[in-house]
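Record format v2
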Amino acid sequence: MKICTIILNHCVVLLVIYDITVNCIFPVVLMIFFNLTLIIRHIRQKQRVTQQIQWHKHRKMIFQLLSITILLLIFYLPICILMMINSIIFIFLCLFSCSPNAFCLFAVDIKSLEQISMFCPAKNRITATVILMGTVTIRR
Amino acid sequence: MNVSEDTDLVLAEVPIPRWIKSWFLLALDIPAVFYTIYLLYRIVSIRNLREALHNHVIIVLLVISLVSQLTGVCFYVVYSKIDQVWLASPFFCNLWQFVDIGLFDMIGMLLAYAAIERHVLIFHSSLVNTRRKRLIFHYIPLSLTIIYGLSVYIILIFFAPCENLYDYTQPLCGSPCYL
């Protein structure tokens, strides 16, 4: 699979970045932020003691969500971070090692990408491989 | 020059033997399916639980995880047994990728939505006290989250903007081409 040539297609590069930031990093950040504020607001509410029964009901709701969220984060957060590092390194290495002129890349059409990958210096590809092996994506 | 030798690393596996992983998955999956069905049955059959607004997200989460338990995990167990994808066809590969990547990420999105929703339910309960407000602040955001997650991954995986290359000896048939 000629990933190097495929990834140079700027459309696909943008899709990877979009998928990882919007569908992976963004929900995780939201999850952590809103769960923390939920706990803080809940504790503050207790000090203003209003209705005991309501307060206990809310605490149950928060515990329910918190337990699921923590369970998910334990497995999801490492994957997200590794995927992000992986894709960033991969994109950069492809951009800088495979092309003689990285700044022209976004104007390149798919047909000429095959030719560009011919310029890939073999040494750079080996370093790219070594760094990639260090940050492989964990999925199954 | 061919770049194929050094680009197979994109979707690497955890270095644990596949049979250990498949038994581990199977041991967790079987009780998980029963628990999920039991929980869904309880939540849907008891009127109080069904009508509580904070349980709606949980119902959606349970349905999604039931689907991925019954498809994604089983596909992997079969794959590790025969060292090949169960049905060697592009549609099956797309389906597996969708279930494994798409539904998994949807769980994250739904939990993020659930965290925001709890704020509304607990601290701004006046926003959900009439039918109209409930529709605007509860049902529409929930369904938008589901529709967004489903449509993004259906477009990215089934109608990929790049050419998918399937390797039937890899889990998930290799990765979807955009990754």
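The first helix of chain B runs from residue 18 to 45.
The CA atoms of residues 127 and 133 of chain B lie 6 Å apart.
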